[in-house]
Design brief:
The protein is an alpha/beta fold. The chain is built from eleven helices and ten strands. The strands form three sheets. The protein has a six-stranded parallel beta sheet with strand order 3-4-5-6-7-8. A two-stranded antiparallel sheet has the order 1-2. A two-stranded antiparallel ribbon has the order 9-10.
């Protein structure tokens, strides 16, 4: 893109070639396009502001507005839907950056006539003042991404009110006992819990920040000096500076084993299974058996996000740990769906 003398020009040719088939549905056998999409426009990334400022204190509102309008016009020309489109505005920033976040959200919402969702990931500061954050950002954020380990019942109830007004609410990783772990060390049910938890609490989105976190730029200097072989994700899963193995890795690079392409992980299959279970819940609900879907989900996932009063956090989570019970639940749902046809 170019920005000169208040005039914005955006060349979408490469973007259209790469992502157009997903947005118009031609990439899929059923012809149905993706229903949620991260737009190539964000003050938190390399564009449209031309580069992320270290302190995120300056925002070129005029440029951002022009970029948003150009994007909306292009989407309309192509016939692509903006219903599930969002701009990822900020990632786990603190109070010092709140004016920047609010201004960016305001510009994006106004320039798109409210058609683009504004997404912000909230973490530690939300834990301390969740309800206050919901009130403070209710006029700016329309896609709420909350770390699973900081979502309180009070904040959740307020977010449900925002959801009734059209906002999307969802969670991202927080590990046990709040949600299943996305790291390599999780058990075979870990990521399967995510879609079940989404149904349990009536959520709209699940957010995993990455699925190919193969780089090691976050590790300290000592680990970086070990060399490329040890830093290969296949041989050294510690890809973060904290003690987490293969966080943000659902697929693996095939080039390491002589394969051109990517290799899906067991975790990828876990979350796919959970999504298929979510479809079972939906089918039951459509068949007028929503109460059965809810009862089965609550039986397997009695609690998540927050735990009962007095719960010992050194124990495992409250959800069902026996995979045989999960299988029985799926069978029960499948039989009920067939009976309803």
């Amino acid at each position: 893109f170019t920005w000169e003398d208040g005039h914005f020009e955006w060349d979408f040719s490469d973007f259209d070639k790469r992502f157009g088939p997903y947005l118009d549905g031609s990439a899929f056998e059923d012809g149905v396009p993706v229903n949620i999409f991260s737009l190539p426009i964000s003050p938190n990334a390399a564009h449209p502001t031309g580069g992320r400022t270290p302190d995120m204190e300056q925002l070129d509102s005029e440029m951002l507005e022009a970029a948003v309008k150009a994007l909306v016009d292009h989407w309309d020309e192509k016939g692509w839907s903006l219903d599930g489109a969002f701009s990822y505005v900020a990632d786990e920033l603190g109070p010092a950056h709140y004016p920047f976040i609010k201004e960016a959200c305001r510009v994006i919402r106004e320039a798109s006539d409210g058609r683009i969702h504004t997404s912000v990931a909230f973490y530690l500061h939300f834990q301390r003042e969740g309800p206050g954050h919901v009130r403070e950002f209710s006029d700016y954020v329309t896609m709420w991404d909350i770390a699973a380990n900081v979502l309180s019942p009070e904040a959740y109830e307020m977010l449900k009110e925002r959801q009734e007004k059209g906002d999307f609410i969802g969670f991202y990783q927080g590990s046990e006992p709040f949600v299943g772990s996305e790291a390599l060390d999780g058990d075979g049910l870990a990521l399967t819990t995510w879609p079940w938890i989404a149904w349990r609490h009536g959520l709209d989105t699940l957010f995993l920040y990455n699925m190919a976190e193969w780089t090691y730029f976050r590790l300290d200097r000592t680990i970086r000096d070990w060399g490329d072989k040890i830093r290969d994700i296949w041989t050294n899963p510690l890809n973060q500076s904290w003690q987490t193995n293969s966080q943000g890795v659902l697929i693996y690079p095939g080039y390491s084993i002589g394969y051109r392409g990517v290799i899906p992980s067991i975790r990828m299959k876990q979350i796919r299974r959970g999504m298929q279970d979510y479809e079972y819940f939906w089918l039951l609900d459509q068949a007028g058996k929503g109460s059965l879907a809810d009862a089965i989900c609550e039986r397997i996932i009695p609690e998540s996000f927050w735990q009962p009063e007095g719960w010992d956090y050194r124990k495992n989570t409250t959800w069902e740990r026996d995979p045989r019970e999960w299988h029985r639940a799926r069978t029960e749902m499948a039989e009920a769906i067939l009976q309803a046809q």
